[in-house]
C-alpha cells in the first residue's frame, strides 16, 4: 500500500509539472480563440493559411487579417481590441520557429484536457481555502481508495485461511468427514509461513493458530472458550468516516465533548463542596461576634482546653477559631 501511495503521488507531481510556461500560453490562446471564433478554430484556420505555410505566407496573412480586425475599422464591435491583440500574439508565435514547433505538437495531438495544477492556478487564482479544500478532498479520496484495496486484500486472505483450515480438517480432496458436515474438527493452522532458520541456525516453525472447522464454517477459539466465526465480516470495509480528515474531526469532537463533561462534573463537585463548608459544624456557635456562651450543658466536647473552648465559624469560605473566656 505504501508503494501504491508513492506511485499515485509521483504521478500527480509528474502531471503537475508536465507543461511549461509557454505551453500554458498556448492553452490560453487556444481557449480564448475557440471562445471568440468558434469551437475547432485553429491558429492556421483563423489566419486563412495551411499548417505547412511558410513564414512569408503567415506574415502576409497576418497583415491582411490585421486590416480587417483593426479597432478603427470596427468601431463599436465588441471585443475588437482583444481580437486584434490576440491576432498579433498568434502571428508572432507562428513566425517563431520554436513557438510554432510547440504549437504544431498540440495542433497534431490535441490540447490535453488535464493541463496541470499550475495552469489552473494561474488561470483562476484560487484562494488558500479553495486550495486546502481541494487537497483535503483529493487526499481523502485517495485514502478511501486505499481502504477499498485493503478490504479486498483482507477478504482474499480470510478466504485463503478458511480454505486452508478446511483442507487440513477434511484432507486434500476437500470432502467432509463421513460422520456429517456438522462434525467439528480442531486443527492448527500455520499463519506465519513455513519453517525457517533463526539466527542460531535452528529450525523454527511458523506461527500456529488453533482453528475449529464445523461444516463449512471456520472458527477461532478464544481464551474464554467462545468461538469467533472467521468470514468476510472480519475484514473492515471502507468508510468515509475513517478517511483521515473526517476521522480527525470526529476525534477532536469526542475530545471536546469529554473535556466539557469533565468540566461540568468538576463544577458540580466544587459547588457541593462549598455547600458542605458553609454549614455550621454541629455543637458550635453561629455567632462569630461573641457575647453568648459557646458551650452547652453536658460533658466537655472535644476541642476544649484549660477552661477555654474553640468555636468554629466561617470567615470568607475558610474556618477560623474564635477563643472566648467563660
Automatic annotation (TrEMBL):
CDD domains: DnaJ. Residues 264-326 are annotated as: Disordered. Keywords: Membrane, Signal, Transmembrane, Transmembrane helix. Residues 42-107 form the J domain. GO terms for cellular component: endomembrane system. PROSITE patterns: DNAJ_2 (PS50076). Residues 265-279 have a biased composition (Acidic residues). The chain crosses the membrane at residues 127-146. The keyword Membrane applies. Residues 317-326 have a biased composition (Basic residues). It comes from the Eukaryota. The keyword Oxidoreductase does not apply. This is J domain-containing protein. The lineage of its organism: Eukaryota, Fungi, Dikarya, Basidiomycota, Agaricomycotina.
Amino acid at each position: 500500500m505504501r508503494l501504491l501511495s508513492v506511485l499515485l503521488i509521483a504521478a500527480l507531481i509528474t502531471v503537475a509539472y508536465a507543461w511549461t510556461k509557454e505551453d500554458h500560453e498556448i492553452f490560453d490562446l487556444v481557449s480564448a480563440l475557440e471562445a471568440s471564433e468558434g469551437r475547432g478554430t485553429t491558429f492556421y484556420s483563423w489566419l486563412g493559411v495551411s499548417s505547412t505555410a511558410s513564414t512569408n505566407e503567415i506574415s502576409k496573412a497576418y497583415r491582411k487579417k490585421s486590416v480587417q480586425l483593426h479597432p478603427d475599422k470596427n468601431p463599436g464591435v465588441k471585443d475588437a481590441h482583444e481580437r486584434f491583440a490576440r491576432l498579433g500574439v498568434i502571428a508572432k508565435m507562428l513566425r517563431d520557429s520554436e513557438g510554432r514547433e510547440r504549437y504544431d505538437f498540440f495542433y497534431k495531438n490535441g490540447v490535453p484536457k488535464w493541463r496541470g495544477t499550475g495552469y489552473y492556478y494561474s488561470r483562476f487564482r484560487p484562494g488558500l481555502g479553495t486550495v486546502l479544500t481541494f487537497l483535503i478532498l483529493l487526499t481523502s479520496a485517495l485514502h478511501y481508495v486505499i481502504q477499498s484495496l485493503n478490504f479486498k486484500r483482507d477478504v482474499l486472505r480470510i478466504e485463503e485461511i478458511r480454505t486452508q483450515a478446511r483442507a487440513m480438517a477434511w484432507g486434500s480432496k476437500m470432502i467432509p468427514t463421513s460422520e456429517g458436515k456438522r462434525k467439528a474438527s480442531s486443527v492448527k493452522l500455520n499463519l506465519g509461513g513455513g519453517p525457517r532458520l533463526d539466527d542460531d541456525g535452528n529450525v523454527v516453525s511458523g506461527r500456529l493458530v488453533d482453528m475449529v472447522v464445523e461444516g463449512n464454517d471456520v472458527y477461532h477459539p478464544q481464551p474464554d472458550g467462545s468461538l469467533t466465526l472467521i468470514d468476510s465480516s472480519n475484514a473492515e470495509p471502507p468508510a468515509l468516516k475513517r478517511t483521515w480528515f473526517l476521522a480527525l474531526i470526529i476525534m477532536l469532537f469526542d475530545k471536546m465533548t469529554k473535556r466539557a463533561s469533565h468540566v461540568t462534573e468538576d463544577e458540580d463537585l466544587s459547588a457541593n463542596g462549598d455547600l458542605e463548608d458553609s454549614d455550621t459544624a454541629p455543637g458550635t456557635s453561629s455567632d462569630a461576634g461573641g457575647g453568648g456562651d459557646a458551650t452547652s450543658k453536658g460533658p466537655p466536647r472535644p476541642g476544649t482546653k484549660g477552661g477555654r473552648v474553640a468555636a468554629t465559624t466561617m470567615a470568607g469560605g475558610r474556618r477560623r477559631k474564635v477563643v472566648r473566656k467563660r
